[in-house]
Amino acid sequence: MNRMNMLLAQEQTRAEVLADDPLWLVLLKAVVLFAFGVVMTLFMINWERKVVGRMQHRPGPNRNGPGGWLQSLADGLKLAFKEEVIPTSADRKVYWMAPVISTIPAFTAFSVIPWGPEVSIFGERTYLQLVDLPVGALVVLAAAAIGVYGIVLGGWASGSPYPLLGALRSAAQVISYEIAMGFAIVSVVLYAQSLSTGDIVDAQRNGWFALLLLPSFIIYVVSMVGETNRAPFDLPEAESELVGGFHTEYSSLKFALFFLAEYVNMVVVSAFATTLFLGGYMAPWPLSAIGDGVLNTGWWPLIWFIAKMLLFLFVYIWLRGTLPRLRYDQFMRLGWKVLVPISLGWFVIVAGIRAIRTDGGVSTTQILIVGAVAIVIIVLLSLLIPEKQVAEDANKIPVTGSGYPVPPMDLQVPTKPRRKVSAGKSATRSELTGSTTGKEADDGNV
User: Fold this and answer.
1) Are 94 and 249 in contact (CB under 8 A)?
2) What does each C-alpha distance from 52 to 222, 275, 394 come to in angstroms?
3) Whole-angstrom distance between the N-terminal and C-terminal Cα of the chain?
4) What letters, b where the CB count within 10 A reaches 16 and e where it falls short, cover 328-340?
5) Do 342 and 379 meet the contact criterion of CB atoms below 8 Å apart?
6) Considering the entire predicted model, what is its pTM?
7) What angle do CA 22, 25, 27 make, to 5 degrees?
8) 199, 365, 396 from 68: Cα distances, Å
9) Using an 8 Å Cβ cutoff, are 239 and 165 in contact?
10) Residue 141 and residue 188: Cα distance in Å, rounded?
């Protein structure tokens, strides 16, 4: 009987196994994922401060806890007990809902990420995944898109101009970079022949998509940094321009929720990048060959998955510590004139490769050579055309010595000094304002 149950279990798909999970196991997975998101936020804040401090020859947090690793927990407790100040002009209902709308989709995206293969939890056979949907890749993309509504509503409901400007920037930013990110994901889906995140991981057993679809991988990495409003693309929070961005008027726990949503989104897109391009929970090549793949079974894959995810999170910190913030026109030009054309062209190439391989008659080497040449041509065109357009626009707009375009000056500086007013004599309006009538100009009283 046990042998028969094992044979039936082997025939079940990932989705069917997860559908048979009892309620207690589903709740356990949900609680663990929520706790993982919160703990990773506390860890990331402290890790980021330590790494950036190391890059800048500073010690970083070193007071609270062993090695300063409890500093984030202390900051969180401090935020919880801070006084909450709500602007009198704020829309209170929307003001309260905005951080919640930002946080919930971030945690929702965790549900479709495959963290590991089939394991046994308290005697129950299951996968290290909450749910495997046929459109799992779209769920992550949709959750990232919905989260920006919280930023937009928070900036609008604050009743202040600077948060509103930050919210509008965020909306434009997400629209611009989601298109390129969507094309990168579609290329992976086209190659894996499935939208299921579990199937995408299984399709990388013979090679990671980061190598097979290198342009998609690069486009996704750039887009995920822009999608999460992180440096050098943190234009909605540009302190030098907008005080603090969309959350300027937030304090206490509502500000903490925005902070939590930002870091959880970083973890989500990093985990999704691991799933799409780095083989998910499968061990790297030297380790995967040990003992006929024994390190790809049991709980070992969870370690590989978290290690790959931390690699992407380190890239976030590295970028923040090295690159300055872009100007807004540079940022939008990169999204619309570079990433979108390249991602669209690469998607066409991937579709052609899949069609040719299906029909047969062409080797993989020939396909890769033709694809590489096409990519080089697209990159060169995308880089040359914007530069030419910028040069043409610069010739039409008067510029200062710094080279930045400025509007024409409407103020005319007088060429002659203003007439001095003698002591005891009141100045006329024309003398104070510097304006002259026709008669005064004829008499030379300028």
Assistant:
1) no
2) 20, 27, 37
3) 110
4) eeebbbbbbbbbb
5) yes
6) 0.79
7) 110
8) 41, 52, 55
9) no
10) 14
